């Protein structure tokens, strides 16, 4: 997949794309990342990309033309046409399902705003969807775009080693992740749950599912709303509740 990013901070976005799993996906040729600076698409001597808002008020608004020309240049640089995403608090809240759908596209174009945001006419004309990471405000779209880039990049087939399998992720099954432990078995901070040392793979699978269900129920009950639990899941969740009352958690 190819991801184009329109940003006033291309070096920052390239650095985000260069590290970890996403950097490796690029090195493996599974992901291509290109950046486009709207400042390179200005025609005035000051290379202006922002202006004061009509109607008054604080802050600046990003001009239409440098963004429109940067998007057009990015579009023309490759085929097929990219889905254009603008990151803002006004967007649809991002979920792992949504990430998986975006990751399956051949191309994405991420538009990063700064200041108070982008002229609404550019959004109406050039943006296919507006996405928010959550109900909080950033000073620029870059950190949100970097998060989306990471979430989408790591789902490219071959990006994760089998040991990091995406099937095991939080939310992959609509639940929070179970707790994880590594060496040593005994530590002043506590012991590793015995079942994980038992070698009994069926028991380990059941324990992990029980923890995932229990933690989701405790921390994010909204994720269980409208979900039909299997007989096994219901039994495991009841067991978790009993253990909780008995002071085992
Ligand atoms: C995205 C962008 C928050 C998010 C942003 C978010 N703040 N919650 N700020 O995903 C336009 C100018 C939006 C700054 C940008």
Report on this model:
This protein has 249 residues and is an alpha/beta fold. It has two domains: 162 residues, SPOUT methyltransferase, trefoil knot domain (Alpha/beta knot, 3-Layer(aba) Sandwich); 78 residues, Orthogonal Bundle (Trp Operon Repressor, Chain A), CATH 1.10.1270.20. 37% of the residues lie in helices and 15% in strands. It is built from eight helices and nine strands. It has a five-stranded parallel beta sheet, with helices on both faces. The longest helix has 19 residues. The model has no long low-confidence stretch (mean pLDDT 97). The structure holds 6-(cyclopentylamino)pyridine-3-carboxamide. 6-(cyclopentylamino)pyridine-3-carboxamide binds next to strand 5.
Topology:
Blueprint: E1 2-6, H1 10-18, H2 20-27, E2 32-36, E3 50-51, E4 61-62, H3 64-76, E5 83-93, H4 96-103, E6 107-111, H5 120-126, E7 129-132, H6 142-153, E8 186-187, E9 190-191, H7 201-219, H8 231-245
Parallel strand pairs: 1-2, 1-6, 5-6, 5-7
Antiparallel strand pairs: 3-4, 8-9
Helix pairs in contact: 1-6, 4-6, 7-8
Bound molecules: 6-(cyclopentylamino)pyridine-3-carboxamide (4GO).
Residues 87-89, 113-114, 117, 132-134, 136-138, 140-141, 144 line the site of 6-(cyclopentylamino)pyridine-3-carboxamide (4GO).
């Amino acid at each position: 997949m190819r991801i184009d990013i329109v940003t006033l901070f291309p070096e920052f976005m390239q650095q985000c794309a260069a590290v970890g799993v996403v950097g490796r996906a690029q090195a493996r040729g599974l992901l291509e990342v290109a950046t486009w600076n709207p400042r390179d698409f200005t025609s005035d001597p000051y290379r202006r990309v922002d202006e004061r808002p009509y109607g008054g008020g604080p802050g600046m608004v990003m001009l239409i033309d440098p963004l429109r020309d940067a998007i057009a240049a990015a579009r023309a640089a490759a085929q097929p046409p990219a889905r254009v995403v603008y990151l803002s608090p006004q967007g649809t809240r991002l979920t792992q399902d949504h990430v998986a759908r975006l990751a399956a596209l051949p191309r994405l174009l991420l538009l990063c705003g700064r200041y108070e945001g982008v002229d609404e006419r550019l959004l109406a004309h050039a943006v296919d969807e507006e996405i928010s990471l959550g109900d909080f405000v950033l000073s620029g779209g870059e950190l949100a775009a970097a998060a989306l880039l990471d979430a989408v990049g790591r789902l490219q087939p071959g990006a994760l080693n089998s040991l990091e399998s995406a099937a095991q992720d939080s939310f992959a099954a609509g639940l929070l992740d179970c707790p994880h432990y590594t060496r040593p078995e005994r530590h002043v901070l506590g012991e590793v749950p015995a079942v994980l040392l038992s070698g009994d793979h069926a028991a380990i699978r059941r324990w992990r599912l029980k923890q995932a269900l229990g933690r989701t129920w405790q921390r994010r009950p909204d994720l269980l709303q409208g979900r039909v639990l299997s007989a096994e899941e219901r039994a495991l969740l009841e067991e978790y509740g009993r253990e909780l009352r008995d002071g085992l958690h």
